[in-house]
Amino acid sequence: MRVFNELKVQTLMSVSAKPGITAKDLARDLKISVESSEMVFFRCFRQKLVDRTTNPKGFKKPPFQYTITQRGLERLLYLELKKTKET
Hints:
By secondary structure, the protein is mostly helical. It contains 4 helices and 2 strands. It has one domain (4-80): Arc Repressor Mutant, subunit A (Orthogonal Bundle). Helix content is 60%, strand content 11%.
């Protein structure tokens, strides 16, 4: 099991590297379940770290694509700095 901040850092790094990423793409990249990636995206969305848009071609799976916000970039930088200080 991963520490949530580590998962958050990996999620924010993936979103900043691949704007428009979906929960399924994140699950494949991080080797976690799709349900786990949807939950971490939902938490990040509630904290305004990512924005989500619906699929532009109508309601097809996956329904949401995620991009990082300015607040998300600031949090990513903070968490990366905190991680380097701890090691």
